[in-house]
Amino acid sequence: MLTATIMEDKKALEPFWEFPIPSYDEWREVTEKSLKGASFEKKLVTKTYEGISLQPMYQRKDAQGLPFIDSLPGQSPFLRGAGAVPSKDKAWEISQELTTSTPKQFNLVAKHDLSRGQTALNIVLDEVTKKGLRIEDAQQLVGQSGLNVTNVEDMQTAIEDIDLAKVPVHIHAGANSVPVLAMLLGAAKKNNTDVSELKGVIGMDPIGQLVEYGSINYSLEDCYNVMADTVKWSNENAPSLQTVLVEGTPYHNGGSSAVEELAFSLATGVEYLQALTSRGVSIQDAAKSINFVFSIGADYFMEIGKLRAARILWAKIVSAFGGEENDGTLNIHARTSSWTKTKYDPYVNMLRTTSEAFAAAVGGANSIHVSPFDEPIQKSTAFSRRIARNISIILQEESHIGKTADPAGGSWYIEVLTNELAEKAWVLFQQVEETGGILEALKAGMPQQKVAETKTSRLNNIAQRKDIVVGTNMYANTTEKAIEVIPEDDTTFIEQHLSEKLNAKATTVQFSAETNTVDQALQFAMNGASVAVLASSLRNADDIVTIEPIIASRGAEKFEELRQANEAFTKEHGEPVKVFLANLGPIPSHKARADFTAGFFEVGGFEIIRNNGFMTSAEASQAALDSKASVVVICGKDESYQEQATDIIKSIKQANEDITVMIAGKPTEEDEVNYRNAGVDEFVHLRSNCYEVLRKLQVEKGVVKG
To answer: Cα dist. 607→462, 567, 591, 602 in Å?
Structure first.
């Protein structure tokens, strides 16, 4: 039957065999002719922030001979994933971050979301808990960024009726995980859960915290001693529980490239492997204890390649430490990017997270968090969490992404891109190692400088609208209203929680070097010791490392500031800054530049006054003055400018010199001189720095101070 079908297909194609298959050279020749003298490289080859040149077409020969191109799923270096076959259960854990402030609230939200498709318990802690601060010293931070846990009873309340033997847990526990780990273990014991059945990650990442905040409350030596103890304890008592995290997120949210996020994360992984193996942990146990977290950005194919490259390079690193082939498997938790999200037109964030989650899934992430669309605006709501959670569910249940191992495998483009990413990340990784490792590199400011340079490049491209942020620097939604959904008001819950904790009895504990730190912390926690007490007892005030942090931000922030400033101005003065389009000639003559100009100013929150065009310069000038707009932009063809622009400019300036007059388009040098002499203030065109033009205009119109 199959043979007959193949023969029928061949026969159906016979009529087309007379047409020759064009070669790449022939295609390029035709393409270059269509460019009419423009450079092929400049027009069709895309330069990325990773220093990679993306070709417009990839061929079989491009992928031939690549390292590991013939590797299979489950084979080192795990390019195609750690498993030989796709998981029958689920392709990845749906590990949505839960940021509820107090234990009782958290428990209600967690049980609700777990009953509706979430498969892992991702507990986001507030800064007070992660840093082990005393509530008395940081009341304003309690519950602001996540769950506040003070003692075992709090954790027990948070996980009540949740079977951690079946539900994996994911907790970023800060620079030192022992206080939080002790609380969870104590709660599990009180809930009669066998700790040996715990799975997931309760991890510490002192380097990541150092990058994010610039300092941590512990010496790194103490952190590494504790890290070794947690790995040893987990290996003996909870072998499916990882206790070390490597977060690439601080680099990504600082504006880094995929190469930088990869290289600096891998260098951190090496730092931890060295710290662990030098403290008596085998490379096998050290490697399997580490969970990597990568943020997934907007460049779909780049992000797929990043996760595939990460697995290749980690396997190479573990092998260099003496690990066996199977020791080099990499567990990846992916979270959709914070850098790409916007406050304006926030529902577009749903589309962004869908694309990012798709890339994470295709790239082979083991667990995925999809950001709620309102992440930049407020704490998530039941609605925003549901939409985010359902993105993963639809990708699994309806799109069947997980049914195929390495679905991108074999694509010439993806295979070449993965290899180029791996090569460039390895070069940067080696540069970090040459400086003495990630810690010395951070002290010297090398990663910070690299990330800052990439961020500057990104922001410049966003400002010039070379990089499009839909709804923010292009295609602004001018009729937008603020989202009506608001998060549950947790002020009362936090105040009640605070009143209980502020009256708690103070205790002191002392750790011994003779016994595993985790065992001691668990016993102290069961006897009533708080997170803050355990943290202070593990803290050594000496040898605290301080570096320049990498500040998290979002690419859209500058344009959001423009919009916010104009909104505040409108509210204060009763009307916005208006931009009148002095359109010349019939609609076909001015429409292209008028549409461009409207979009240019709308992204800054300016009100646009449109019209169908004017036949004479006198009509255009008078209409502009009658509009009472403080900004006039002349839109039309170059020939119309040469005939009418000078008269319009002079007429408007003579009537009111405070009116800003601009021309849409980039004139010749000779014409520009004439228009400048007539009094034109600015030209707006494709090469304009949109942000700088709008910011300057806001200063001139008194919207913001210079």
So the answer is: 22, 11, 18, 7
Task: Provide the whole-model pTM.
Answer: 0.93
Q: What angle do CA 108, 110, 116 make, to 5 degrees?
A: 105
The SS3 assignment for 583 reads strand
What 3-state DSSP class applies to 290?
Answer: strand
Of residues 101, 103, 135, the one with CA closest to residue 504:
135
Pairing relationship of beta strands 660-664 and 607-609 according to DSSP bridges: unpaired
Q: In terms of C-beta density within 10 A (0-12 exposed, 13-18 middle, 19 or more buried), how is residue 512 classed?
A: exposed
Pairwise CA distance, residues 194 & 163, whole Å: 10
Q: Output the six-digit token pair for 81.
A: 């994933």
User: What interhelical angle do 178-190 and 531-538 show, nearest 10?
Assistant: 140
Rg of the chain's alpha carbons, rounded to an integer? Answer: 29
| 269-318 pLDDT tens trace | 999 999 999 999 999 999 999 999 999 999 999 999 999 999 999 999 99
Q: How far is CA 654 from each of CA 292, 621, 658, 676, 678, rounded to the nearest angstrom?
A: 65, 11, 10, 15, 10
Output the CA torsion 69→74→77→78 (10° steps): 80
pLDDT computed for residue 706 by the predictor: 77
Cα dihedral sign for 123, 128, 130, 133? negative
* Residue 19 pLDDT: 73
Q: Which residues of 433-468 are buried (b: 16+ CB within 10 A; e: fewer)?
A: bebebbbebbeeebbbebbbebbeebbeebbbbebe
Token duo for residue 414: 């993806």
What one-character DSSP code corresponds to residue 644?
Answer: I
* Stretch (H or E) spanning 336: strand 331-336
Residues 6+ apart with CB under 8 A from 243: 177, 181, 201, 202, 203, 204, 227, 230, 231, 233, 234, 289
CA distances from 437 to 214, 260, 371, 432 (A): 17, 14, 32, 5
Q: Distance between CA atoms of 292 and 273, rounded to whole angstroms?
A: 13
**Which residues of the chain are under the pLDDT cut of 50?**
1-4, 6
Per DSSP (E only), the strands in 181-225 are 200-204
Neighbours of 314 (CB within 10 A): 26
Parallel, antiparallel or unpaired: strands 46-47 and 53-54? antiparallel
Q: Which two tokens stand for residue 647?
A: 């008269």
- The residue with tokens 């969970």 is 291
C-alpha of 385 from chain center: 17
Residue 554 tokens, joined: 């979002």
Closest to 494 measured CA to CA, from 379, 631, 336: 379
User: In this structure, what DSSP letter does residue 643 have?
Assistant: I
Written as six digits, the tokens of 696 are 């300057």
Helix or strand run (H / E) with residue 578: strand 578-583
Cα–Cα distance between 706 and 695 in angstroms, integer?
9
